[in-house]
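Treating backbone geometry as a discrete language has practical consequences that deserve illustration. Part of our work consisted of pairing the sequence of a single chain with a tokenised description of its backbone. We regard such an encoding as a compact summary of how the chain folds. The amino acid sequence and the backbone structure tokens for this protein are reproduced below.
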Amino acid sequence: MLENVLPLVSKPARYINTEIHSVHKDPATVRTKVCFFFPDTYEVGMSHLGIRILYSILNERTDTLCERVFSPWTDYEAQLRSAGKPLTSLESDIPLSAFDIVGVTLQYELSYSNILAGLELGGIPVRAADRDNTSPIVIAGGPCAMNPEPLSDFIDVFFIGEAENAIHEMIELHQSCSSRHRFLEVLSKTEGFYVPMFGKKTVQKRFIQNLDAAPFPLKPILPLMKPIHDRVTVEVARGCIHGCRFCQAGMIYRPYRERGAESIKTLLASSIRCTGYDELSLASLSAGDYSSMQTLLPDLIRYYKDQRVSVSLPSLRVGTLTPEMIKAIASTRKTGFTLAPEAGTERLRGVMNKPVNDQDLLDAAQTVFANGWNVLKLYFMIGLPTETQADLDGIIHLANELLAVGKRSTKRPVQLNISVSTFVPKPHTPFQWCAQASLEEIREKQSYLARGLKKRGITIKSHDPEMSLLEAAFSRGDRRIGQFLLEAVKKGCRFDGWTEQFDFQKWSQSFRDCGIAIASYSSRTFNLEDELPWDYVESGVSPEFLKQEFQRALKEEITPNCRTACAQCGVGCTDRDAMTSEGTSGVSGTDATDPMTTSRVTGHESAVRIRCKYSKTGRIRFLSHLDSMTVFQRAAARAEIPVLFSQGFNPHPKISFGPALSVGMESEAEYLDMEVEPFIDIQKLPELLNAVLPEGIRILEARVVSLKAPSLSGSIGQYVYEVTIPDLYALGREDRLKHFLALPAIIISREGKEKDIRPGIKSVALKGQGNTLIIILQDFGTIKPRVQDVIEQLFVLEKEQVLAFKIKRIGLFCWQQNEWMSPMPV
């Protein structure tokens, strides 16, 4: 990590590594060093459950070190390249090239450019053929590994399937093999592993038979900056009993398996206790299909309600929703409700094998609106096989019907947020033989829907059709497409799943330079007898079943779900009763007993207000004010501080903070107030909080203040800063200071307006004979000068140059009794 350049990049907290429960080992004490590379930003990667599970498994081994790395955003990559520094791991700052194994997550086709860029930036030859005995083994796994061909020139080994058990075999084989070549040779003969250098072979997906026996971390890493999914997540089931014909996950994660309810409760209790999260998520491809959901959900809601922990089911299938489930979810914090009809007509849903009728959707929406939600999100897909104009009209008609239901069901204004994606044919699905619609067709369909849904109360967002085109090309690609990928990376393609970074011009030029027509991959229709690029990968679902499902789709025939009747898909379920289990959890870590036996927060009519002074130093100075607030809220929960909550629709802990500290500044004088139950031991509070706060934040003192005392943000008005002047700007500092202080006005421009900040500058003075300034600022009416403004004007600098100054806040003061006083009461 280049700490000195972090002030220059966006979201520097992505790189600081001071997370709770991250694992740090001495590399000299282990035999195998592994780094997991997630080819997207930190906040995306830390939302991925799989990487957390495997990280925990490997770090429980005493002979293995496992660290993480995420794709650096373009600004940080530029800084690394400018400095000639490699991409390094988050935990120990080790270059990727120094690890024995680099494990790459293949979650999304549009992250492929990040994979090649990250390997090169980490000092690893991009092409597998160019690596030697000093290079790490690059192993890739995830749903996109079901078609290894596009990346086969760059990845040493592909793992097909679920890795919880196989990862131990991989480590033990690595430690037993005398050379890199020998390790690859042995892996090529091991079930679930495919090594391209030894040629194509049939490779069978591996999977966990018993989900309860699968390891799961009891102490998940707690990110300091907000990830995309910021909550405790426990996988309640893996696989899906339905067979939606467009859905790759529903096919490749078969068979369906469930985790026992008691195991789920144990995992949730431990995770919430050690993280302080206020939301839990029951994850699966279709949470409503979980066989014990009707009892588990009310149990969880009832237990966690007093703790102000909400329960979410992120993937609810309309056919599995019951009014009771919706009402139960409504009893916790309402963060939004999503339905996924996918298609606008029952006919097309039949083609997809998603037998949801319009009345089911309308009934579900009515219950949702009646239970307090006023915003409903809907997912639709366009470009599906056999789609007609009537199906597009069906989306418009259904949206209008749902809006009308909302208006009848609640007195509040209702809003439909409609998301429209483009169908992407995926390997190992019944629609793998189908072509993707052309760009012209997709744009025309999107425009038609936009016109038809232009109505108050409805917003529509369509996925970029060029992104979908590229996703389809990689999804269905063969090995030839790898040269095009490499060319695009050389042209600077990065973060292609991010709208602001996606540059289709570069991709199109790369295709032309390589003599490849992108439509030859995305819009190609395969015959059922054709050899597909991914045929040698066996998902467990037989090709015969997929062909049968494709033919049934054309006839608009429904295949019953696995609980209703076995469709003989080939995955080898021998007993459908075994799809549910109540076994012992294979949890990782300690304290795997006593689920749901302690309450974290209780209510109380009385209250005590405690004011804390704290410092914020080191790398954690790059954490934003908003993220810092969350850190304290979760630390209080982990320390079992009985913080009181506000009332109303969305209760929040009664913790308030002083003026925000700018990202990158240190401080030894920050303040917060918290209202707690009256029996708390004030003397122990700093010790309790310091035991759970991350490195760099420390409670310095705590005292009781009156509930009627002015708020910190409303009473603090004077700020003292210690500023270290870089040697580059130190020459002539005394003369600069004299001239600056003699100015009658100091004009700055902020948000298009000019302001004179001179009345808010109380003093600027050198500390001794060194290069340190003490700057005292104070609010003067509407004038609130920033210390950065003072430095900029004093040294006549650009805003970027100010970042070179080291700034520490050393004092905050309130105006009381006609003088500036410390916020801490005497």
